[in-house]
């Protein structure tokens, strides 16, 4: 696993150790260990079915791992095994605290259709972080301005394009002031002409020094914004390194085949 000397000067934002996940007899993750330091932008690549989305969903227990350790910052999530073989949180308050520090941007936005855009964004800060509504509105309007949608604050999700809804979803995740942002194929549900507006927002976040883990098929974007690239294959990390190493000089034959099929030069 690639870790540079510069990493030692940055705090650890997220650490996964020997993470496993099975669905019945199907092993999807087979021992994934990964460290993200503050400011890391890590793109997670691989073929469909390689475990990429499952990996992200295990981080905040949207999927319960069957083995392994998860830490946010210097706090380890306390887990215990269940009769089903899955791990669950020992303390639900700790789990809620962890989830508040890990923003998740889904493929399909997951906005509340009956709430306005502004209401979607202030719900978490007011209910979970206990921020006063007046302050939450001020913060939400700044975030909507940041993603270019302040004029849509009183609209409903159904009145927005897919790209606009995804930008709202990013603003909603940012409103929780997360330590880490997780993106699960954030452009896969979008029409091609709407992809760039979402990637532009994500590039801006990377330039700000946000810590992000991004599952994506956008190869050029991954190469441009990442300081680390992870290639998953059949539930294990097949290759990890800088974009130059993974895209240009992979050691794995599987990664070489993948890159060739995506016409990377």
From TrEMBL:
This is ATP-binding cassette domain-containing protein. It comes from Psychrobacter saeujeotis. SUPFAM superfamilies: P-loop containing nucleoside triphosphate hydrolases (SSF52540). Residues 14-259 form the ABC transporter domain. It is a peripheral membrane protein. PANTHER family: AMINO ACID IMPORT ATP-BINDING PROTEIN, L-CYSTINE IMPORT ATP-BINDING PROTEIN TCYN. PROSITE patterns: ABC_TRANSPORTER_1, ABC_TRANSPORTER_2. Belongs to the ABC transporter superfamily. Gene3D superfamilies: P-loop containing nucleotide triphosphate hydrolases. GO terms for molecular function: ATP binding. Keywords: ATP-binding, Cell membrane, Membrane, Nucleotide-binding, Transport. It is found in: Cell inner membrane. The keyword Cell membrane applies. It holds the Pfam family ABC_tran.
